Amino acid sequence: MITNSHLCADIGYMSLNHAGEQLCGDHVEIAETDGNSTVIVLADGLGSGVKASILSTLTSKIISTMLAAGLRLEDCVETIAATLPVCSNRGIAYSTFTILRLVNNERAEIIQYDNPAVILLREGKSVEMPTTMLTIGGKQIYRTDVALRENDLFLALSDGVVHAGVGGVYNFGWRREDIARFMEPFWHVGFTAKTLSTILLQETNRLYAAQPGDDATVCAVRIRPRVPMNLLCGPPASRDDNEKMMSLFFGKEGKHIICGGTTASIAADYLHRPLNVGLAFPDPVIPPTATIDGVDLVTEGIITINRVLEYAQNHLDDNSAYERWSIGRDGASQIARLLFEEATDINFFVGCAVNPAHQNPELPINFRLKMRLVEQLSDCLLKMGKRIKTSYF
C-alpha cells in the first residue's frame, strides 16, 4: 500500500490459465520505486504455457526493476520495446504490457503496449481517460496521466479477458465497455481489490464455459482512505503489564478486536464492563464470540486465529474461501472481513503468557505455535499490502 497521505492503494490481482496449461502466460509484478511511488506491471506473453510464462515474467520484472532503480518511464519502455522480439509468423511482440505508476497518492501514470486499455471507475461510472500515443522503439505506446481521487478503481486486463465468450456468448468477445458496465455495481460495495479481481475473473471463466481459450488476468487498484485496526491476542507474560498492554491497545485509533478468553477477561476488568459470552455456534468448529461494551469484536483465541490464517493463505491463492468468510457470522469470518476487507494498517498486540491448557499434546492443534500463527498471519497480511506493526508483552 502507498502510505504518503490519508489515501492508500489497495492492489489485488487474479489469473486464469489457458485450459490444459499448468503455467499462466500472464504475470503481474509490483515494486516500490521509492517512499511514495508504486509500480504495477501486467505483462502478457504471446501464446500460452511455459514460453509465454517466461516472457511475461521477464518483461514485468525488467520493467519494474528499472523503474525501481530510478530510470525514467520513457527510458524503461524504450528499452523493453527495443528488447522484445517480434514473432516472425504473426508480426506481433512476444510480450505486451500495462504499467501503472502511482505517484504520491496524487496521480497515476499509465503506459500501455498492445494490452486492453485500463478501465477507470469513478463515482461508480466508467470514465474515459485522456490518452496520448507515442512511438518508442518503433512501437506504438499509449500514455495516460490522471489525477487520483478517493475511491477511484482502476482495472488492468490482459486480452484473455476481452476474448471471453468469442464464438459463444459473444460473437466478438467481451467488449471493454461491457466489462466496465459489469463491474460498475460492485464499485459501491467497497470490496477489496483482490475480491473485485476474483469477481471479474469468475465471470470471465463463466463466459469461457470453464475452458479458457487464453490466459486471462485482472489487476484491480482501489484508491481508498487509510483504516487502522487493532488486534489483541493473549495476556502478557507478566501480570504487572496488564494495565500497560490495555492502555496502549485501547489508546490506538480504529476498531479493536480481542482474541482469547483470558485476554477478554483482562480487558473487561480494565474497562470495568461485563464480559458476555455468546452461546451460538454459526460454525460448529469455531467457538462462539463474546461482547464487551467498548470492544468491536471478542472471539476465542488460537482456534479462531488458526482459521483466520487459513482464510488469509487462501485469499492470497485462488480466494475460493471468500464465499465462506464474506458472509459467515462466526468469529473467524468476522475477523477476516475486518482485516482483509476493511483495514489498511493493523496493530498486533501479542501477549507472551503461556496457557497451561495449551500444552496438552493430545489437542488437535499444537497451541504452542501461537506465536508462529501470529507471525504467519502477519506475513499474509503484508503480502496483501497491509501495514503491520506487532508489539509483544
Describe the structure.
The protein is of the alpha+beta class. It folds into two domains: 7-225, 4-Layer Sandwich (Phosphatase 2c, domain 1), CATH 3.60.40.10; 228-392, no CATH class. Helix content is 32%, strand content 29%. It has eleven helices and 18 strands. Strand 12, helix 6 and strand 13 (255-259) form a beta-alpha-beta unit. Helix 8 (302-316) crosses helix 10 (331-342) and helix 8 (302-316) packs parallel to helix 11. The longest helix is centred in the N-terminal third of the chain and has 19 residues, at 50-68. The radius of gyration is 23 Å and the shape is elongated.
Q: Supply the number of structural domains.
A: 2
Indicate the structural class: alpha+beta
Order of helical and strand elements: EEEHHEEEEEEEHHHEEHEHEEEHHHEHE
Number of strands: 18
Unreliable stretches (pLDDT < 50, length at least 5) are: 363-367
Per CATH, the superfamily of the largest domain is PPM-type phosphatase domain
What's the tally of helices?
11
Classify the helix fraction into a percent range: 25-40%
Report mean pLDDT, rounded to a whole number: 88
CATH topology of the largest domain: Phosphatase 2c, domain 1
Instruction: State Rg.
Output: 23 Å
Largest sheet: 6 strands, antiparallel
Q: How are the elements arranged and paired?
A:
Layout: E1 7-16, E2 26-34, E3 37-45, H1 50-68, H2 73-83, E4 95-103, E5 107-113, E6 119-122, E7 125-127, E8 131-136, E9 139-147, E10 153-157, H3 159-162, H4 176-187, H5 193-207, E11 216-225, E12 228-233, H6 242-250, E13 255-259, H7 261-271, E14 275-277, E15 290-292, E16 297-299, H8 302-316, H9 322-325, H10 331-342, E17 345-350, H11 370-383, E18 387-392
Parallel strand pairs: 12-13, 12-17, 13-16, 17-18
Antiparallel strand pairs: 1-11, 2-3, 3-4, 4-5, 5-9, 6-7, 6-10, 8-9, 10-11, 14-15
Helix pairs in contact: 1-2, 8-10, 8-11
